[in-house]
Amino acid sequence: MPSPEVDLARYLRRNRTGVEARMWALLRGRKLGVKFRRRHPNGPYVADFAGVSARLVVEVDGGTHTERTAYDQHRDRWLESRLACHARVSAAGGRGA
Fold first, then answer.
1. What is the reported pTM?
2. Are 40 and 49 in contact (CB under 8 A)?
3. CB-based burial of residue 50 (10 Å sphere; 0-12 exposed, 13-18 middle, 19+ buried)?
4. How many of the other CB atoms lie within 10 Å of CB of 37?
5. What is the pLDDT of residues 9-48, one digit of tens each?
């Protein structure tokens, strides 16, 4: 039986925003020399995009992130303590965020 994080990741993969779809188009297929996974469970969190071999996570910040800054700060600290690099990309101004 899958964990709650895996179930959430599957749901989020099926219900992505337009900005996430465009970001995935840029990251998929090893275009940057790293294989990325989308909506990858990482501990208690689900990363938007993860380049596991490079220990890299890319997060797309949409409208919900302005309402939960404390949660995001805690998540950022957790991810940064376990990864080589953690990047946030703002979806501001993008359609479908």
1. 0.75
2. yes
3. buried
4. 16
5. 888 888 888 888 899 999 999 998 999 999 888 888 888 8
Quick one: tokens of 52? Answer: 């596991």
**What is the DSSP secondary-structure string of 37-71?**
EEEEEETTEEEEEEEGGGTEEEEEE-GGGGS-HHH
- What class has domain 4-90? alpha beta
Each residue of 56-85: pLDDT tens digit?
898 887 766 556 788 888 888 888 888 768
C-alpha 47/C-alpha 50 separation (Å) is: 6
Q: What is the rounded CA–CA span in Å between residue 50 and residue 36?
A: 5
Q: CA 51, CA 36: separation in Å to the nearest integer?
A: 4
Fill in the amino acid letter for 71.
Answer: Y
Residue-range domain boundaries for the chain: 4-90
Cα–Cα distance between 83 and 52 in angstroms, integer?
9
Is residue 88 within a helix (H) or strand (E), and if so which, with residue range?
strand 85-90
